[in-house]
Amino acid sequence: MPSPSSSLAIILVLSCALLGGYASMGLAYRHGFLDAIGDCIRIAHGSASPSTECVLVRAHEYHRTGYTGIKHVDGYFAVLLEFFAFGLASGAGPGETDVEGLLASTYMATLFCGAWFLMAMEGLRKRNAGGLLSYTGSFGLVFQMLTVTIIAPIYHALHLLGLPQIQDFDTVAVDPLDLRLLPWSTVISYLLPTLGLALTQLNVLSPKATYLAIALWQPFPLYQSIVHPLLRAMCWGSTTSSPRKAQHSPEQVERSLAKAYRFILTLCMGVHLVVVGTLIANHLHPDLIPNLSAARTLAPTSLTHPPTLAMANTPVPALASRAIVTGFLRWDIYCASASFVLWAGYLAYHAERGPGFVGVLEKILFWAVVGGPMAPAAILLWERDVAVLKRTRDSQVSNKRK
């Protein structure tokens, strides 16, 4: 049975799912945006009723009638692709770069990468091996179909429900080989497909290529589920010959964890500082990038006056649809980031029993300013790991003396 503090942590992370789910999926359904996308697709495919009208002005005039050959899967996939196509609509003219769109999408994609990296790492922990939480690829595919703001808190709640009273070596240990390969598998499976999405903001892709870039990005959790074991097999000759069950010292694990955390922190902090620095510079010198808005680039949209209200006046311009999608995705990743921070903060507090609530809160605020919403989660998990591994080393030394 979870402790009172663990129960509170579970309630808090699940509240992130409720808020994020309402602000993203809930409002999109409530005001008819997702239904409107479905209508536009059915009209393009010739399967709509005569009275059906497409009220969305589309930025890309391209459609495929099938992807997998399975009707219901193709229908859902078509909505998903069209949704992201609206979100990637460019606000710049032909041959120009949509700087605001590029900064906003890069920032969100980086946060998403941070969330995915930390979840993938958690699935590799020794204590999770073979259990439900190790199937991060499956969780990833589900949050691609639903939203990360719903699935990530559920993952965190499941983890907290199974958390032992004392976090031991197995709770934090990851095979050093997996930790060395995780950045590479993340680059191949997530970052490379994401570069294709970035090209849409540069106005260098045709409508067909834009949809191809979106389609190639969608199953990145599946890519990682394939790429990571393949990289492991390349290192050891076969996955079965790899000594996954070998005992690694706390020092080995700590060094490997440090490199993995530095990778994702460098990525998140680097993009955060570049984006925020660009916005600050433009605020001081407005002529630097005309029409660049910090609010449109980073701020979550209003819940009382959301962009989805544009659906009340049809036809809906392409940039209004883009505002709906970016508002959806911003709430999606910000609430998921909050869940990661709450989860990591509880784990750090539970393991260290030192800094207390105020100390953890100070770290969260500092690293959020310096590195963005996902940086505090990485820092707190890293500190938790170091504390547990130090306790393991101290215990080993004490046992030897006896």
UniProtKB/TrEMBL annotation:
Residues 1-23 form the signal peptide. Keywords: Membrane, Signal, Transmembrane, Transmembrane helix. The chain crosses the membrane at residues 102-120, 132-155, 181-199, 260-281, 364-382. The keyword Transmembrane applies. It comes from the Eukaryota. This is Uncharacterized protein.
